[in-house]
Specification:
The protein is of the alpha+beta class. A seven-stranded antiparallel sheet has the order 2-3-4-5-1-6-7. Strand 2 and strand 3 form a beta hairpin. Helix 2 runs antiparallel to helix 4. The longest helix has 18 residues. The mean pLDDT is 94.
Amino acid sequence: MGKDFTAYLGHNLDENHIYRMCHALNGDQFVAINSFVKELYEFNPNDISLVWKVDSEGIGGTQDIYGPCGFNFTFSEKVCYFHHYIRWDAFLQNEDFQIKLRKVTYELSQYFQSSFAIYVPDNATKESSIIDFIWDDENRSIEYIVSWLEKECSAPKKTFKELVGSDGYYIDFFIDIKNLD
């Protein structure tokens, strides 16, 4: 089984705000997301007619926004789990994918008023078990998740290159991404 890209961001959206976000995703407010989706249509031609939609019947007390080309945002009360089918290794080693996914994540962070994101693979590492903190029986904050990672998994990696071929996680404060805009 391979590993896919995931990012975790703090948020304070309620159900109404999640529906408003979905409406904004179907418009033109999310420039980086819409741009990347359009690029991915070449590989997902059947998704061209798809629209973003909310599934409020999520697992474990969550809500999801599903979009075209494999975009999925799962919301607990405090954390957004952004997952995409782009492989973890491709994210780490392909600078084009990395910049595009980081721009998407940065755009989400701006919308959520979150100052950072945590990147971990979606499975097969100790770090990936942070997924358990978004379900309603845990429902932890992003700050709790960072603290748990530091305590249970050591400090975050300082660069994406350090993650290639190893376990670990990266906390992105988007300093270089802010300078690209």
